[in-house]
Amino acid sequence: MEASLIGGWGFAAALALMIMRVPIAYVLVGVASVCSLIAYAWRPGGEFMFERGLRPAMALIESNAFDFIHSYSLSMIPLFIAAGHIAYHSRITTDIYEAVRVWLAKMPGGLAIASLFGCGGFSAITGSSLACASSMGRICVPEMLRFGYDKQLATSTVAMGGTLGSLIPPSVLFILYGMFTEQSVNKLFLAGVLPGILTIVGFIVVVMIWAMLKPDHAPAPKDLNFTNRDRLKAAIKGWPALTLMVIIIGGIYGGFFTATEAAAVCLLFAIGFGVLSRRLTWADFLSSMKETAFQSAALFFIAIGAKIFVSFVSLTGVTGAFVGFVDSLGLEPWMVLFFIVMLYIVLGMFLDSIGTMLLTLPFVIPLVEGMGMDLIWFGVVVVKLLEIGLVTPPLGMNVFVINSVVGKEIKVHTIFFGVMKFLVADLIVLGLIVAFPIISLLIPNSMG
């Protein structure tokens, strides 16, 4: 059997299994292993010989898994995850929300805007969208509902704010993208800063317009009377979170740290602050380490599966066939990019973000690279598209996370209706990133 045909069937099988909600790690490892065995055992023009294919297929699986798990860059994932959990238990992440809430308390829509800033700060420390939506949802949504905010506005704001964890560094998606495309994770982190800020500004504009058109949906609290002293104390309270952001962004930009070193320094700072402030108990520390081990193991398993899948795709030559087919169509680069964007939006409706990225990168990267597009810029575009996929129906992982947090009294469709308003801003930001690559490349290109 032709190797490219085996590769095409393997990709179709992986896509079908993911849509059926089979765990992504099992899909990538299983499909790549079986199809690699078939490719080695069933050579073109010959008969299928199981014994001939077993040894090279096992060697492919073993070597890729071993080489990948010993990657130095991979060590930043558990470090950032651990730093995020410690920061959460030390209440570093929630201090951002509390500080902004005090400053914007009297402003219509102020609590919603404070929630966006809180989510942005949480994302800048933890790098996880789902963790951000889950943690901040427990804090922000009840607070907004207590002051009479509309359920749709309260829930959709935090659902959208949670997506910022994909774009604002550190981001697990950027780490995985950098490792599989052999791009600098440092530059990817910095490339996400301006698009992340632009996204937050877009969401704030949506909240302000919403509050202006429907004042009863975002009433200004009347029983909150914060003094200037309260505001100053709140601002000072946010210094640990600001320090962590400076370590990550300033440290990398200034050349003081690599991304991995920044992760280690952030973890040490979070632990030190938690211990000295007596906010971090031994039980919290153990809980953080257990969650870190669980999440890291899951991500490592997925990453190993993706590495094996990439090798399988390379073995079958299906990528070359795909690129050749697209070239034969004679499409303009902007048309190819348009179809790639549509592909990610559609897949994002049904697959989780990591699965979508790891399944498609072996095919789209050679295509994009062949058109001479910058892979750092394209990484930001991909992560932005995956960010949108976190809130698009019918899957919308962040929406379901918020729904599980707030309980059954707020229906899923209520959150989705609110999210649609924010998606307008998201699509505008996406259009700006695509049309003006300098938005993503300005900071990384200015590195010394």
UniProtKB/TrEMBL annotation:
<feature type="transmembrane region" description="Helical">
    <location>
        <begin position="415"/>
        <end position="443"/>
    </location>
</feature>
<feature type="transmembrane region" description="Helical">
    <location>
        <begin position="153"/>
        <end position="177"/>
    </location>
</feature>
<keyword id="KW-0812">Transmembrane</keyword>
<dbReference type="GO" id="GO:0005886">
    <property type="term" value="C:plasma membrane"/>
</dbReference>
<feature type="transmembrane region" description="Helical">
    <location>
        <begin position="297"/>
        <end position="323"/>
    </location>
</feature>
<dbReference type="InterPro" id="IPR004681">
    <property type="entry name" value="TRAP_DctM"/>
</dbReference>
<feature type="transmembrane region" description="Helical">
    <location>
        <begin position="108"/>
        <end position="132"/>
    </location>
</feature>
<keyword id="KW-0997">Cell inner membrane</keyword>
<dbReference type="Pfam" id="PF06808">
    <property type="entry name" value="DctM"/>
</dbReference>
<dbReference type="InterPro" id="IPR010656">
    <property type="entry name" value="DctM"/>
</dbReference>
<comment type="similarity">
    <text>Belongs to the TRAP transporter large permease family.</text>
</comment>
<dbReference type="GO" id="GO:0022857">
    <property type="term" value="F:transmembrane transporter activity"/>
</dbReference>
<feature type="transmembrane region" description="Helical">
    <location>
        <begin position="64"/>
        <end position="88"/>
    </location>
</feature>
<feature type="transmembrane region" description="Helical">
    <location>
        <begin position="189"/>
        <end position="213"/>
    </location>
</feature>
<feature type="domain" description="TRAP C4-dicarboxylate transport system permease DctM subunit">
    <location>
        <begin position="12"/>
        <end position="437"/>
    </location>
</feature>
<protein>
    <recommendedName>
        <fullName>TRAP transporter large permease protein</fullName>
    </recommendedName>
</protein>
<keyword id="KW-1003">Cell membrane</keyword>
<comment type="function">
    <text>Part of the tripartite ATP-independent periplasmic (TRAP) transport system.</text>
</comment>
<keyword id="KW-1133">Transmembrane helix</keyword>
<feature type="transmembrane region" description="Helical">
    <location>
        <begin position="375"/>
        <end position="395"/>
    </location>
</feature>
<feature type="transmembrane region" description="Helical">
    <location>
        <begin position="24"/>
        <end position="43"/>
    </location>
</feature>
<keyword id="KW-0813">Transport</keyword>
<keyword id="KW-0472">Membrane</keyword>
<feature type="transmembrane region" description="Helical">
    <location>
        <begin position="234"/>
        <end position="253"/>
    </location>
</feature>
<comment type="subunit">
    <text>The complex comprises the extracytoplasmic solute receptor protein and the two transmembrane proteins.</text>
</comment>
<feature type="transmembrane region" description="Helical">
    <location>
        <begin position="335"/>
        <end position="368"/>
    </location>
</feature>
